[in-house]
Amino acid sequence: MSDAASSHKNMLLSYEWLKEFIELKETPEEIARILTTLGFESAVRPANSGFSGIVAAKVVSKVPHPAADKLSLCEVSDGAATYKVVCGAPNVEAGQIVPLAKIGATVGGVKIKKAKLRGVESEGMICSERELGIADASEGIMTLSSAEAGRLGRDFAELYPPDFIIEVETLPNRPDILSHYGVAMELSAKLNRPVKPPAAAGDKIRPDGLLADVEPTLLAGNTPGCESYTAVALDDVAVAESPEWLKNRLRLCGYRPINAAVDITNYVMTEMGHPLHAFDRDKLSGGKVIVRAASPGEKIKALDGKTYDLGESDIVIADGAGAACAIAGIIGGETSAVSSSTKRILLESAVFNPQRVFAARRRLKISTESSYRFERGMSKARSIAACQRAVELLKNLCSARPSAIVDHGAGLPKNKIAVFFEKILSHTGVNIAETKVRGILAALSFEIVREEKDFIVVEPPSFRRDIFLQEDVIEEIIRVFGYDNARFDSAPAPIPDGSFAADRRRFDFVSSARRFLASAGFVENVNYGMIAPGWFSYFDEKLCVKIINPVSPEAAALRPSIFCQMWECFRANLGEGYDSQMIYEIGNIFYDGAQTRSLGLLASGNVFGDNWKKASLDADFYFLKGILEKLSFFACKDIRPEFAVDSGASNPPGGAKTPDFLAFGINIISEEEHIGRIGPVAPSLALAAGAKSPVWWAELNVDILAEKPRRNPIHKQYSVFPASSMDFSLMVEEGIPFGTIKDNILRVMGDEAHLVESAAPADVWRSPSGETSVLVRITLRHPSKTLDAASLGSLHGKITAGLTQIPGLKLRA
């Protein structure tokens, strides 16, 4: 596995390297645009530019500077001449092959001139990677491969030719894009050009002769964290410095060269996308490996020099004696590391369970290039191909001889997915020819296992672990076909009548509600719809919805009310000293198998703030009631809300009964339809949160309110004629809304209802025995004349008749 720390989350591609897998006529900028249209946002920058006058040279000798302790005087030869160069790098030594910037060369924007340093003339500059711009940092001068000793004077631009870096933003479900070959396959599908696999990636590994004492064995048992494991033993390995072409490509992609054996594993991972790991086989007890779960209290010292405490859920690679040699899928161990003295290697190419790797990586707080790939999901086929490619490179660059092979595990089974051509049209609105569909799927490595007139059955490639549904396949088809090429010649699937109109009405109501509530001083909250299941104790738990595979215990359920998270926000605000609050939220709630859009309002404390005229006006029922009534006017909805104490038989948002977080509930009713609930938060809950004033709560069903008829405001001119008032004293049973009384008055008045200027309770009296007396005052006014005694008498009779028709109400004498 690659143990390089993951310092970037985007894939860095070499344009010149990419061209080895697919013919590219396009410029790097055009390739970046094509990748962006495929869903991978990309950017381009030049690399290895401006190398002029820099050559490969040999440090012939090194002596201390006569006048400076930290400087050295070096003689450097380019094969044609010898130059005296003053160098301050601590790692310069005689015999090294180095990049020499001769007089006249430009390094880092500075032209090299002959100059005296502490009295000694310097005829050039020995360069570091940072000075050449091929690395962000360096600890000293850059040293070239010893293979360049026979080619002194070679232009540095030949070793590090001009190139372009394409930085590709990858997606969590697309680990196959974390490689040059993977990107080439995407371009192949888009550009309809063949792709050439890496050399030897498809060749079968043939041992040069099995040796009984080196054959690796795998005791994976039923280890759930390992889906497949391939290992190749190699003998006669000559671990040396990597050639410059390989080091150049690694540096372009953000890796630091180490030695040929380790560099090859990183090279193949960058080329083909699958992480590999090389063990020094002489450091493995018994010459074999075991894949197992970590033991309680087990520790391992990793290649980064840190010691990690392992957990029982972690998977480790152990040797024959049981000693852990690597944390599977994350990082190798120091005890089995490959070095320049290594002669025998065990090359590992495995597929580890993504969830196990992710959990271990997060718990151990370590991120490597290997873990970044394994936690996204690797494939058996790619692991075999990567292993074959690495063996070929080890044979060519390290003179290695494969001596034994072991292969365990068949990988994951493939899915079979039926794709109906009619569904492609109905889902995308684009009529794509069936031959084009087959061509795109074949280019994306989908195997068509069955063909019918109306559909095909496909198997996704093993490296696409994110493809499960027909919709997933259709998304791949339209993505490669190109959204920019879409011509909507045919209409998509029929849309139910009124669905767009309903969405528009809901959008208009929510927009109006937000504007009004903001103007009224309310602050909006925005929360996710997931909560801790502990909230269910306030509701009927049988009707609440739990999440099967939650992201965390604190988000293991769907909220049955907007109140849940708003209360957490309210408590947090109290902790910051905000004793007076008016907050609201609009979002989905989930209850009794239904999903509803809901509006929640919470108010507490001084709702208008302290001022010199009035010290305080605390939130109460009438404040929230007024807000709701004004909201209906502002949103131009004919709601006409009524309020009645909840008897438990209603079904407003939040359940069939008042939730336990309220002291009591008052139903909000519109035309005999429940649209919400209002009530005070239970005092015990408010006190526990630290509230200094009563807390009032209201929740409305947005879906119902949005469908209410539109009512445009009507502006009436003031009448110049006098008004007349009538008082009616009524005995009213508890629970009769005043709206019912008012509606009956207007109903019995018929065409004369417009004469009612106002109808409101002027006084309420409750007797010790529980009877309620209400004094209703009705104000009448005619817009064009004075109401005479006869007219008023007639109106009084109609009103009296209407009141007597209301059950549970009687006129007092």
Task: Walk me through the structure.
With 813 residues, the chain is α+β, with helices and mostly antiparallel strands. The protein has 5 domains: 54-160, Beta Barrel (OB fold (Dihydrolipoamide Acetyltransferase, E2P)), CATH 2.40.50.140; 203-408, Phenylalanyl-trna Synthetase, Chain B, domain 3 (Phenylalanyl-tRNA Synthetase, Chain B, domain 3); 417-479, Phenylalanyl-tRNA Synthetase, Chain B, domain 1; 500-706, BirA Bifunctional Protein, domain 2 (2-Layer Sandwich); 724-811, Alpha-Beta Plaits (2-Layer Sandwich), CATH 3.30.70. The chain is built from 20 helices and 39 strands. The strands form 11 sheets. A 7-stranded mixed β-sheet has the order 26-30-31-35-34-33-32, with helices on both faces. A 5-stranded antiparallel β-sheet has the order 5-4-3-6-11, with no helix packed on it. A 4-stranded antiparallel β-sheet has the order 14-21-13-22. A hairpin with a 2-residue loop joins strand 9 (115-117) and strand 10 (120-122). It is elongated, with a radius of gyration of 39 Å. The termini are far apart. Mean pLDDT is 86; it is low at 209-221 and 649-655.
